[in-house]
Design brief:
The complex is a heterodimer. Chain A is built from 16 helices and 16 strands. Chain A is α+β, with helices and mostly antiparallel strands. Chain A has 2 domains: 105 residues, no CATH class; 351 residues, Cytochrome-c3 Hydrogenase, chain B. Chain A has a 5-stranded antiparallel sheet. In chain A, strands 8-7-6-11 form a 4-stranded mixed sheet. In chain A, strands 12-13-14 form a 3-stranded antiparallel sheet. In chain A, helix 12 runs antiparallel to helix 13. Chain A starts with 6 loop residues before the first strand and ends with a strand. By secondary structure, chain B is α+β, with helices and mostly antiparallel strands. In chain B, strand 6 and strand 7 form a beta hairpin. Chain B starts with a strand and ends in a 16-residue tail after the last helix. The chains are: A alpha+beta, B alpha+beta. The complex binds FE2/S2 (inorganic) cluster.
């Protein structure tokens, strides 16, 4: 059988996702979309670079992987190195200081995404003028909202600074614990901000909820598809962002696996290599690569958990779940609402920790019997993050394998793009503004960190290339830059 | 017998003692001369040339040159700052120095000198040499990527620890710090308490398991630039 000829449409780089990427849309001879591929530039050299480095360097070294969520890599690696140094249980101070840092990261990352990157789409409409559909447009039309976004983010960064010494690329976690507690001065300064932070977080949830419920009809068909969902949960089934057990559910909410400890992840998750991408495609083993792909991140976490252990976020979750009768929500654009529920949850958690005297404790580190292999899993702002290492008797790393959330969301993003492209491609092999806009909006909902590069808040250049079935460039459009 | 030697450093009359180096006499008088291979208590080595001063118009290394009556010393001038910047920049490109994940960051003398001299990035291309690690010792880690060949460990091990653990092998760009004719540090009697470790100005010779335990903000050079104990920093003119 002769393979069907396909045309390739390439969109690159996507604007207002952090980092940059390239989208190819494959068409058949009738110009129907057969497949969409998001090309992601990933840190490929890292797993080799880290070989031979001493284990205590890893939590600091891995931060350099990613300019967007360095704290997540820092904490995940530290959790792995806890196991290497035999720290079975951290001191309450160490565990809580790390959690505080983590919630700070969730808060700042979610605030950045919602207010700066997503708000323009939601407030102005996906098809509005690109020259004002950006953070500057939001600042001009909704100055209060823009200000709240900036201050929410800054607060999250201040939490990070108080626990890691710096807002970006600080160092707080060390194998077996932390290098400092939360000083009373930092605690008091942060407490002073808490009321308005909570208020703005509530308002953000309301805004996202309102947006989603009032646009339900148009959003339901926008890049939505059934999928499995994966995240950490607590033993009780409650949402867990820092350290828990893996749970996966299918599109109907039936449990695929549950209460899986980090060290057993390879029994349940495998990674597939595809010829066109450097990125690996993880999938749930028993379901196989075709059926086993899954979503991670805010939407997946709300879908997998049974509850949230802070009252206001739990109330928000219940409202969210009502929309789908308690079943998983498979709507791509519901990510935004889920993300804001987590932002509120993070704010509530930070508030609790700022009133917990353990944070001023002085027992910072523990050690135990050395181990040679460690797996740690963390819920980073963008989704489940896996760090797997082996460290030899000389204290040197001999193996590292990381699965980042954007990797897990790779297939879901391809599906979302494929679906949106099928809707907006008008039967001609041509990239219209409408297609461009909607592809971007769909990808952005997943908050991917495409190149693990420092984000640019302004508009990034957007290049669109269209290839015919022979791979010849037939059309090219550029925006910005 | 008169035990005092009179000299002028940067226009200031100061006194030194016979046998004292210019660097030490200046230090005693509150004038800080940048240095790297010099370490108090070790035999001066005179190899890094960072302490270069002009003595009566001629370049000399202040750590090895004894004071003499009537010397005119130019110790901290713009042209010397330029020279020292060049030296530090060359050291930075000659090794593989990744301050961002180096545990010595904040207490590294090379980094601190770069900051004091206002160096943000070297002007020369990085050489990215191949360097070996030695993790064989249970308590000590050698990362030759960060070694600047100052020979502090060589001298401290020989003269203070009495062990001769370290030496050099190779020449020119291929020169490396070696471990006592053996291949691995584990095969020597090196101990984590050795002076040799303590004096390493960079992150080449570090105790294991301890990296990053001092929080940012509390490391020696987080608070005060290098040399400011002797002489407060004048804001460097950046290029
Ligand atoms: S300190 Fe004088 S030559 Fe190195």
């Amino acid at each position: 059988m002769v393979a069907k000829q396909t045309k390739r449409i390439v969109i690159e780089p996507v604007t207002r996702v952090e980092g940059h990427g390239k989208v190819s849309i494959l068409l058949d001879e009738e110009n129907r979309v057969t497949q969409a591929r998001l090309h992601i530039v990933e840190f490929r050299g890292f797993e080799r670079f880290i070989q031979g480095r001493p284990y205590w360097e890893v939590p600091v070294l891995v931060q350099r992987l990613c300019g967007i969520c360095p704290v997540s890599h820092h904490l995940c690696a530290a959790k792995a190195m806890d196991q290497i140094v035999g720290a079975e249980r951290l001191t309450p101070t160490a565990e809580k200081v790390r959690r505080l840092m983590h919630y700070g990261q969730i808060l700042q990352s979610h605030a950045l995404h919602f207010f700066h990157l997503a708000a323009p789409d939601l407030l102005f409409g996906f098809d509005s003028d690109v020259s004002t559909r950006n953070v500057f447009g939001v600042a001009a039309r909704y100055p209060d909202l823009a200000r709240q976004g900036i201050l929410l983010r800054r607060f999250g960064q201040e939490v990070i600074r108080a626990t890691a010494g710096k807002r970006i690329h600080g160092i707080g976690a060390v194998p077996g614990g932390v290098n400092q507690n939360l000083s009373p001065a930092h605690r008091d300064a942060l407490r002073g901000e808490m009321d308005r932070i909570l208020e703005w977080a509530r308002a953000a949830v309301r805004l996202a909820a309102e947006y989603t419920t009032t646009h339900l009809d148009s959003l339901a068909s926008f890049g939505s598809f059934e999928s499995n969902h994966l995240s950490l949960v607590q033993a009780s089934g409650a949402m867990e962002l820092y350290d828990g057990l893996l749970r996966a559910v299918n599109a109907r909410g039936e449990v695929i696996f549950d209460q899986v400890p980090a060290r057993s992840y390879t029994d349940h998750i495998a990674e597939e290599v595809r010829p066109w991408s450097y990125m690996k495609f993880p999938f749930i083993k028993p379901l196989g690569p075709e059926e086993g792909w899954y979503r991670v991140g805010p939407l997946a976490r709300i879908n997998t958990c049974d509850s949230i252990d802070t009252p206001e976020a739990e109330a928000a979750r219940q409202q969210f779940m009502k929309l789908t009768d308690g079943k998983p929500n498979n709507n791509t654009m519901a990510y935004h609402w889920a993300r804001m529920i987590e932002l509120l949850h993070a704010a509530e958690k930070i508030n609790q920790l700022l009133h917990d005297p353990d944070l001023q404790g002085t027992e910072l580190m523990v050690r135990g019997a050395r181990r040679e292999e460690a797996v740690a899993i963390l819920e980073a702002p963008r989704g489940t993050l896996f760090h797997h290492y082996r460290v030899d008797q000389y204290d040197q790393v001999t193996m590292a394998n990381l699965i980042v959330s954007t990797t897990s969301n790779n297939e879901p993003m391809n599906r979302a793009v494929q679906q949106v492209a099928a809707t907006y491609l008008s039967g001609r092999p041509e990239i219209t503004e409408g297609l461009l806009n909607h592809v971007e909006v769909a990808i952005r909902a997943y908050d991917p960190c495409l190149s693990c590069a420092t984000h640019a808040l302004g508009q990034m250049p957007l290049v669109v290339e269209l290839f015919d079935c022979q791979g010849q460039l037939v059309d090219r459009k550029q925006r910005g830059g | 017998m008169n035990n005092t030697i009179n000299l002028v450093v940067d226009g200031r009359p100061i006194q030194g003692r016979p046998g004292q180096s210019i660097l030490e006499a200046a230090q005693a008088a509150g004038i800080w001369i940048p240095r790297l291979c010099y370490s108090k208590g070790l035999v001066p080595h005179g190899s890094c040339r960072l302490c270069t001063v002009y003595v009566n118009g001629r370049p000399q290394s202040a750590c090895t040159q004894p004071v003499a009556e009537g010397m005119f010393v130019e110790a901290n001038s713009q042209r010397l700052l330029e020279l020292r910047r060049d030296l530090v920049e060359m050291l930075l490109i000659d090794g593989n120095h990744f301050c961002m994940f180096c545990e010595k960051s904040g207490s590294c003398e090379l980094q601190a000198l770069a900051y004091r001299f206002g160096i943000t990035a070297p002007r020369y291309p990085y050489l990215w040499p191949q360097r070996e690690l030695d993790a064989s010792h249970p308590d000590i880690f050698i990362d030759r990527n960060r070694c600047i060949l100052c020979a502090r460990c060589v001298r401290a091990s020989r003269d203070v620890d009495g062990k001769h653990v370290f030496g050099f092998y190779g020449r020119g760009p291929g020169k490396r710090v070696a471990v006592n004719a053996h291949v691995r540090l584990a095969d020597t009697d090196a101990a984590v308490t050795d002076k040799a470790l303590e004096v390493c100005p960079v992150g080449a010779l570090v105790p294991k398991h301890q990296g990053f335990t001092v929080p940012i903000g509390q490391r020696p050079f987080d608070q005060r630039p290098i040399g400011s104990d002797t002489q407060p920093e004048k804001a460097p003119k950046t290029r």
